[in-house]
Structures are given as structure tokens and as C-alpha cells.
Amino acid sequence: MPNERVRPLVLDAFVPYRLSVLTNRVSDAIAAHYEDRFGLTIPEWRVMAALGDTPDLSAREVATRTAMDKVQVSRAVASLMAARRVQRTPSEADGRVAHLALTRAGRAVYEEIVPLALHLEETLLSVLTGEERRTLHRLMDKLATQTQKLEPGRKAEPA
């Protein structure tokens, strides 16, 4: 149908763009706090946060949990190991897999950052009512589930 007009893309109304911009702004603002105080990059903090929440993950599990690519995780882990904040232990069940965990020094940094991260989250969300916060979480859950339909190999039809 060559005569059909394509609906224009209004970037400021395009939800994927808006989510990306918002995520980048929030992440950059928060990262500035822990980069200045702790010398951590965003990927390094994400690895530490994942391991602080769930120790003994493999690098692949960290990548899945944080939605980071394997290269980012690998570089972050290498840097954290050099700083002695993360340790790697070979799996007894599968020698090809190594489990990652925070070291004592890494745990100390994590425990210092968590209250700061929670405070920054509260500052961000302070403009929302309790009901708006609950709605935001429900909507994020729904959108996260829906992203499976966007994965390569799935047929996505234009509306």
C-alpha cells in the first residue's frame, strides 16, 4: 500500500524513548553519588547490588538479573576483583562455572551504599503518592512481562 502515510514518530511521546531517557537520567544522577564516594561505575555497582542481594551467582546469572551484556559484566567483575570487592569461586558441581560473591571489603562498601541508594530512591519517588507508587510498580511489572513479545524471533506486528 504505497499511498498509505506512515504515522510520524514523535520522539517525546514514544514510550521506549522516554523510558530510556528517564532510566539514563536516574542512573547517571545516582551513579554520580557512588562514583564520587566509592569509585564505582554503573556496571560495577549493578554487579555488587546483584551479589549483595543474591550471593554466589555466576556471571551469566548476574547478566540476566541486571539485563547487562556479558562483556559489561565481565569487565565489571574483573575491576571489582582487582579492587578486592568481589571473589570468584569455581563451582564444585560444574568446573566451567564460577560463583561470584562480595568479599568482606565489598560487603562493607555495599552496606554503606545501600542506605544512600534507598535515600536517593525515596527522593525520586517523593513526588508520588502511595497509590501512584503502587501503580508505578504494577505498570513496570506489566511492561517487563510484555517485553518478552519484543524479543527477536517473536513476530511483532505493527498496529
What characteristics describe this protein?
two-stranded antiparallel sheet; 159 residues; single chain; mainly alpha
Distance between the termini: 15 Å
* Coarse structural class: mainly alpha
- Unreliable runs: none
Count of distinct strands: 2
Task: Describe the global form.
Answer: globular
Q: What is the ordering of alpha helices and beta strands?
A: HHHHEEHH
Radius of gyration: 19 Å
Q: Helix amount, in percent? A: 55-70%
Largest sheet: 2 strands, antiparallel
What strand line-up does the widest sheet have? 1-2
What share of residues are in beta strands?
A: 5-15%
Mean pLDDT: 91
Total of helices: 6
Explain this structure.
A hairpin with a 7-residue loop joins β1 (86-90) and β2 (98-102). The protein is globular, with a radius of gyration of 19 Å. It contains 6 helices and 2 strands. α1 crosses α5, α2 (42-53) crosses α4 (70-82) and α3 (59-66) packs across α4 (70-82). A two-stranded antiparallel sheet has the order 1-2. 60% of the residues lie in helices and 6% in strands. It is mainly alpha-helical and 159 residues long.
